[in-house]
């Protein structure tokens, strides 16, 4: 049986908060393991030297991804996302991001299990390292696109939500710079901004703030789906 629409959004909010907490563990463990090295050989050696810590990083990444997918599923049961196509798109992209985070986590598990590198690194391990890199970036990109779709959704209720919508759009656009290697400092700032946004979204969902703003029943979705002067959603 699907969860009741009245509780689905709040459950999703709790899962998003759990994902945010797991993300903190993931980042802290990766920094502690000092796994970001100039070469793959050096990275693998750092992982081997700090295997338990890097394993914690892998666990955090996996849990964060699973929580994102689960939160997306719960959000899709809520009338809040059923009201407008932008809400559904944001939710699907959030789940897509979580799925790629899971794939990236599985790659890190393989790297964590690999013994200290010798003179030659197997092509299989090189492929796993490349897959970890690309899946991680795709996941982050999808999360940014989810924010852009979410910005369109948040614009409609008006009031303070429009300020939130603009901030969400700025963060979503900035997250696309994850592909620019030269923007290292910017990546950290964007990462913090995304974390704050995730916590804020969790709070809005868990407290029912957005429900109180647009109404508490599925009938209230007309506030979102048919704005004045427009006959279709965005």
Q: Would you kindly provide a written description of the structure presented here, covering whatever features stand out?
A:
Helix content is 77%, strand content 0%. Mean pLDDT is 83; it is low at 215-234. The relative contact order is 0.14. The longest helix is centred in the middle third of the chain and has 33 residues, at 123-155. With 234 residues, it is an all-alpha fold.
List the helices and strands and how they pair.
Blueprint: H1 5-33, H2 40-49, H3 51-76, H4 79-82, H5 85-113, H6 123-155, H7 160-174, H8 184-207, H9 209-214, H10 222-225
Helix pairs in contact: 1-3, 1-8, 3-5, 5-6, 6-7, 7-8
The total count of strands amounts to 0
**Fraction of residues in helix:** over 70%
The number of helical runs is: 10
Structural class: mainly alpha
Descriptive key words:
elongated, 10 helices, mainly alpha, single chain, 234 residues
Question: How would you concisely characterize the structure shown here?
Answer:
The protein is mostly helical and 234 residues long. Helix content is 77%, strand content 0%. The two termini are 30 Å apart.
